[in-house]
Design brief:
With 141 residues, the protein is mainly beta. It has 1 helix and 12 strands. A hairpin with a 2-residue loop joins strand 2 (16-18) and strand 3. Bound molecules: thymidine-5'-diphosphate (TYD).
């Protein structure tokens, strides 16, 4: 079945607090519903720049504002939703088949991404019209 923007949930993550600060632990298949095969992070994003602007066919991701804040625009081809991430103890699950754009990064923001698969250029849909066609095709299956 086709995924919708409403399948992209915000997950509260663990947080262990003591007087010296906080630690958040994420284990694949325990705190998030996939094995973690890749981690990457975006940082030093110049003011006014956007990232993302693509969809994935199979990749599941957890996106965390490890520092600062940014907005994630989610689009399933029919509905759009904007989620603000601004806490390191919450993560946004992004399921396959969703167009995403990362917008309005605060200064010093770090966008941490945990991904279910290794990098595969063939898993990307980078053209919005192509995404709309792909999403209509999936809808009709
Ligand atoms: P891209 O996914 O387009 O970045 P964003 O969505 O954040 O704007 O990737 C940017 C570049 O980095 C592109 O040349 C592909 C490369 N890249 C890898 O080689 N491996 C990876 O795991 C990722 C995420 C990107």
């Amino acid at each position: 079945m086709k995924n919708s923007v409403y399948d992209n949930v915000i997950l509260p993550l663990s947080k262990i607090h003591n007087r010296a600060g906080n630690i958040t632990i994420i284990e694949g298949q325990k705190n998030i519903p996939f094995d973690i095969r890749r981690i990457y992070y975006l940082y030093d994003i110049p003011g006014g720049e956007n990232r993302g602007g693509h969809a994935h066919k199979a990749l599941h991701q957890l996106i965390v504002a490890a520092s600062g804040s940014f907005n994630v625009l989610l689009d399933d081809g029919q509905n759009k939703k904007i989620v603000t991430l601004n806490r390191p103890d919450y993560g946004l699950m992004v399921v396959p088949g969703i167009w995403r754009e990362l917008l309005e990064f605060s200064s010093g923001a770090i966008c941490l991404v945990l991904a279910s698969h290794k990098y595969d250029n063939k898993d990307y849909i980078r053209n919005y019209d192509e995404f709309i066609n792909y999403s209509k095709r999936i809808d009709s299956i």
